[in-house]
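=== Per-residue structure ===
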Amino acid sequence: MRFWEDNGYLILRRALLPRDIHAMLNVVDQQWLARKSNDHQIDVLSGPDDGKTFRLSEAKLAHRNAVYKLNNLFLRVPEVRGIAYSPVLRAVLIDLLEGEPLICNSLNFERGSQQPFHFDTWYMPPPVDTRMVAVNIALEPVDGDNGPFTYYPGSHKIPPWRFSDGRLNYKHEESNAMFDYVNAEIKRRGLKPERFSGEAGDVFLWHAHLYHGGAPITDPSRTRKSLVVHYWRVGDLPLEKVRRDRIGAYLNHTLRGEISLLS
């Protein structure tokens, strides 16, 4: 806990069993094989369709060779929730969140994201500002060549920038001032970026306000398969937004609203 409070991240080595890794890889394969009527969305992050979103039913096989993320399998695929709530992870999340965790979002990557540095609170601000934890579960080895997760240790201590409406949600028209503030704080605090590397089954956990992104992919032949999950705290949400099964608690709809399990 002291390391978490000082640095804003934790690394759990070999937290997942090989059978869990195999199961997760198989889930993604099955989603692509059954894409004909599949309404899960992918965000394409490279190539001619960079920046576009497709339902899997509309996606081309070529999109799988691009950098992309497959959104929110947690809502319908119990295997994803089972991995997100593996025993070691669940125990650590309860400590970090100071309460029962709830899955609010999941993202499957097959390549490094190469995303610019950002705070997750820009896109999915939690009901309580500091009560969100994210995890990156490595499903295969990650190193400096396949676009590793990159982060600034200690950046979670930077007071969050609030946009003109008083919220944390990103506003493009106000981004210049915000980036000036963040860069000045990083320089003032002497923060330096680091890269996460490891083996399949390693897990990187980070604080809601940790500044992070994806490094460039220097070897295009390399994949970097991973599962990213964001968690809020059950007690911070009204009961009607929470769904629960024997595995654990999760949001009963996607944050974009494209999929819902509301009865």
